[in-house]
From TrEMBL:
Higher taxonomy: Bacteria, Pseudomonadati, Pseudomonadota, Alphaproteobacteria, Rhodobacterales
Keywords recorded for this protein, A-Z: DNA-binding
Name listed for the protein in its UniProt record: RrF2 family transcriptional regulator
InterPro entries: Tscrpt_reg_Rrf2, WH-like_DNA-bd_sf, WH_DNA-bd_sf
UniProt KW S-adenosyl-L-methionine keyword: no
Pfam families recorded: Rrf2
Stored SUPFAM superfamilies: Winged helix' DNA-binding domain (SSF46785)
Gene3D superfamilies xrefs: Winged helix-like DNA-binding domain superfamily/Winged helix DNA-binding domain (1.10.10.10)
Transmembrane segments annotated in the record for this chain: none
């Protein structure tokens, strides 16, 4: 599950990606917050973190604000997830970036829990590592997903 911080980051980046195709003018934080329905006080900290990652730049002055400095098609969602939320693996023994052996596991090779979650995680990883910000920005705003129907309720 992604954090609220990650959702706010993605919403802000979608707004900036919408500007990428246009004149690429810097957007003030108030406008990004309004267009993304994100609280400004959280957005300030998130944009600083994304700026440090080399994804956005801040422009000073009267017409200043934030703008993307990388093509949305080159900003991978998996990289954003790791940067904002940390490791994305469901178990530490499956993480590529923060591998840790599980303290209570005698043998990873025969661990049934690891095996089941590895299969699910690798499928998820293949998908999430193929998606970029441009893909996210192109998605329709209406999603036809009913968790109750998906769970068989």
């Amino acid at each position: 599950m992604i954090t609220q911080k990650m959702k706010y980051a993605l919403k802000a980046l979608i707004v900036l990606a919408d500007e990428w195709a246009g004149e690429q003018r810097p957007l003030q934080i108030e406008e990004i917050a309004r267009r993304s329905s994100t609280p400004k006080r959280f957005l300030e900290h998130i944009l600083i973190e994304i700026r440090r990652a080399g994804i956005v730049a801040s422009v000073r002055g009267r017409a200043g604000g934030y703008k993307l400095i990388r093509d949305p098609a080159k900003i991978m969602l998996s990289d954003l997830l790791r940067r904002i939320d940390g490791p994305i693996a469901p178990l530490p023994c499956l993480s590529r970036s923060a591998y840790q052996r599980c303290e209570d596991c005698a043998d990873e090779a025969s661990c049934r829990i690891r095996r089941v979650f590895a299969d699910v995680f690798w499928s998820y990883l293949l998908l999430i590592e193929s998606l970029n910000l441009a893909d996210l920005a192109r998605q329709p705003e209406v999603i036809d997903f009913d968790p109750k129907r998906a769970a068989g309720a």
